[in-house]
Amino acid sequence: MRTAPHASRVLAGRFTRRAIVIGGALLAGSLLASSPGLAVASSAALSGVHVLGRDFNFPASIASDGTRVWVANYDGNSVTELSAKTGRLIKVISGSRYKFDVPGAIASDSTHVWVANSTSVTELSAKTGRLIKVISGSRYKFDVPGAIASDSTHVWVANSTSVTELSAKTGRLIKVISGSRYKFADTTAIASDGTRVWVASSSVTVLSAKTGRLISVISGSRYKFTNSVAIASDGTHVWVANYGYGSNYSVTELSARTGRLVKVISGSRYKFNGPSGIASDGTHVWVTNDGDGALPHSVTELSARTGRLVKVISGSRYKFNGPEPIASDGTHVWVANIGGNSVTELSAKTGRLVKVI
Description:
With about 350 residues, this protein is an all-beta fold. It has a single domain, classed as YVTN repeat-like/Quinoprotein amine dehydrogenase (Methylamine Dehydrogenase, Chain H, 7 Propeller), CATH 2.130.10.10. It has no helices and 33 strands. It has strands spanning about 10, 15-20, 20, 25, 50, 60-65, 70-75, 80-85, 90-95, 105-110, 110-115, 120-125, 130-135, 145-150, 155-160, 160-165, 175-180, 190, 195-200, 205-210, 215-220, 230-235, 235-240, 250-255, 260-265, 275-280, 285-290, 300-305, 310-315, 325-330, 330-335, 340-345, 355. Strands 5-33-32-31-30 form a five-stranded mixed β-sheet, with no helix packed on it. A four-stranded antiparallel β-sheet has the order 6-7-8-9, with no helix packed on it. A four-stranded antiparallel β-sheet has the order 10-11-12-13, with no helix packed on it. Strand 27 and strand 28 form a beta hairpin. The model is unreliable at about 1-55 (pLDDT under 50).
């Protein structure tokens, strides 16, 4: 998600990265599409692959609960709902009553869908997509939240210098967490595994998912946290995507139990190239590379058990175009292409292309 049209900071789902926009072009990323939809490639390039048109408009964040896929359209002030089984369009949710205002982050816990807007959170039913409520007001301290996560008990909203905790059952405010000891500074990503909450900025702040209390702040040069734009936890490992500056790209692996450093993953064979989004389903780790350099847009697949490289997925048939937000439900992997106004669906088992939507 972008904090504002043509702003100098780009937030996409659970992450933030720096960018420069000149004349409608997003540098350090990809050219923004002038209109939604896809140009159909040749049948040879798309053999066995169905390419469908959908109403995406700067798809800034994506989430899947295994039944539905939810896409927050930043420029469209809408949410696109897809079937996780087939990828088919169910509906596009929009209208003034939803109060979608540059929605840049989305999360689903299978019961509720939570959409972060510039100064509010919209709660939808995950079963029907109907509006439950719009949560807003000065006491929530929503400040262009760049990320949101739900563990089915709590909802965690990352604001620039604070985290707002809500009840996942009622949406009521539990607390706003802020203060210098938390080291929140331009927070860019948030994840919860039900035990710990992991908040990324120039460091990683660890909170208790039960109480919200501070557990630790993880920082230091050995972690290689440099413009850490995305974070994911599968309950065993925590994975941090470091967008870096220039070519300083890496993924930092932490222990979800202790927060200790397991390893920093980097090197040319991983083809990290502006790693902007990260997701883990407990078996695989998926990293989107938005092409901030000479390498093409791609997805790097790692083993969640060892961190070793499984494969790098790239090529014209995938239609990766500014791939940043990513989600996996264990069966499918969903990649939102901000530049192409499309979603690429992969098999979580094999990484093969299922379709471009």
